[in-house]
User: Fold this.
Amino acid sequence: MEPMIVTDQEWRDSFALTGYALDLAFGSGENDFELTCPERVEPGALAYIDGTEYGGIVDGETGASDSEVATYRGRTWHGMLAAKVLCPDPGSDYYELFGTPEQKIAAVIERCGLGGVFAARAGAGSASRWRFERFADAYTGLRKRLAEEGLRLAMSREGGRTLVWAEPVRTVGDAVDSDLLRFEATSVRRCVNHLVCAGEGELASRAVVHLYADAKGLVSKTQTLFGADEIAALYDYRGADAAELESEGAKKLRELQTAGGVEVTDVDGSVEAAVGDVVAARDNRNGRSVSAEVTKVIVRASDGSLSVSYEVGGASSQQSGAPSVQGGGVSYTGGRGIQISGGVVSSDLEIGSENMLRGTNRGSSGWWGSWGDGAGSISEAVAPDGSRGVRLSCSRKSGTWFYMAFSVGAAAPELNAIKRGDPVTVGFSAKASAPVPLFLSLQHGNGTNRLVEKSASGQAIGAEAVRYAFTFERSAVQATSESVVFFSVPLEAGADVVVWGLKLAGGEVDTGWSPSPYDQPPAVQSGVVSIVQKAVGEPASVYVAFPAPFAKSPNVVVSALTSVPHKVSVSASNLSAKGFSAYLCRTDALVETSVEWVATVQ
Assistant:
């Protein structure tokens, strides 16, 4: 069993414990520990196992007069972050940060006043903007923001500091198959399909929204299941207005769409996981698999041995050739590696959240425009969150029309599968150099035969980055490869609009951007970027967005196209699935230098 290092109240290493009992947990729900030992530990001291994320600060103790040992209680490193509330600055609606994950983690540590304990370390991810929920605790806020980028929070006590960084979420357990796992799958014919959402107000004045799910799990305001097939529930969200109530209620109802469950009865393995990772296992006999996110890590030490177990929730099960199903949140407990015993995990089939449009993560590809009697252009742009977007620019104001469009293309069959009168939602993020009105529609390329009963107009795109969502009713007109998502934006000369994260999906709620299931991540990409230094010998960098995101962070090789390689050095840093930072340093002259890059995923 590894020794536990104990510091004094000034956080200087004091002594090492070898005979101790430890019960420590971090992740979802609890982030604390109990340490039992005969040695005296001062309140406010740190206790940790070096080279791991197991440790924290001692807050109190319990001891009996006739006992030779005492029990010390405290917060884990995660609990110390969870005990800090991220309040918006005065006059601001939200606490926001922009930069690499390392920079943003460092800013949170400094804001929490925990620089004496924690230090940010370089890890995965690229520059992006984070907006924290109002009054979120620091630990939950960091985990959520990283999860949105396919990352998880990692920690390790090393060199007198608790290092914090971002790592890609892993799917562990590739070797865990039916030889090591036995589970039973069950199906559910009906689940909650009518959610009565109650928000702000009292009695007759209280905001109430009724949301329904159909037999396929599609959430809308139209009821299709009645009588014995209807299962209703109350969603009590006091303080929410009608708009927030509808948005959050739709999310909750989708979570409740359980298509069945998986009962895990035995796992025997030695796979190690962390909070945020995904545990997966497969039954080779029938092609069924089960996977779930690790939500909590539990560490126990006694009698000279240390064991680690996991709580796993938010599971999903999948049959070969069938749609993926997402977890319903029932958790089960795993032992060392994935020692799971007797858990039941519910799962739901989420319908309506898939992006019908293909290639929306490829910058200006797929976009085109028409300027009337004006002049304009479409070019690629890097969005505030670091993703690839498109920029519509106006060099001469039009007196007739001025628009851009994204081709529906191969998504026409999916769009036509939505019945007439059923809802379809277009969501996208945008910002403009100056507020500009927007007319949005789904129609054929020639501007006729709208694919929706009524188009959206009157809403303006502002100077701040905002996600917009418009819900339409599907018309009887058939979509074709020439059909488009139509943006009419009457810009003034010199103005521009940046759009990113375009999504077209069935239903009434925009669930945020996601790639089309048909968008296959590439294995190899390459390109050339130009870099100019501000001063000789001073490194300069540019951010390179991959033409299409990889499935995971790739390996990147860079080389300068130069005849004086002994005077030019280049490197790559801040790698992520979306892009990287290319660095250049010349010692001879201020010359624009072309840097070739090749990115590969194995």
The domain at 524-600 is CATH 2.60.40.2080 (Immunoglobulin-like). The longest strand covers residues 288-302.
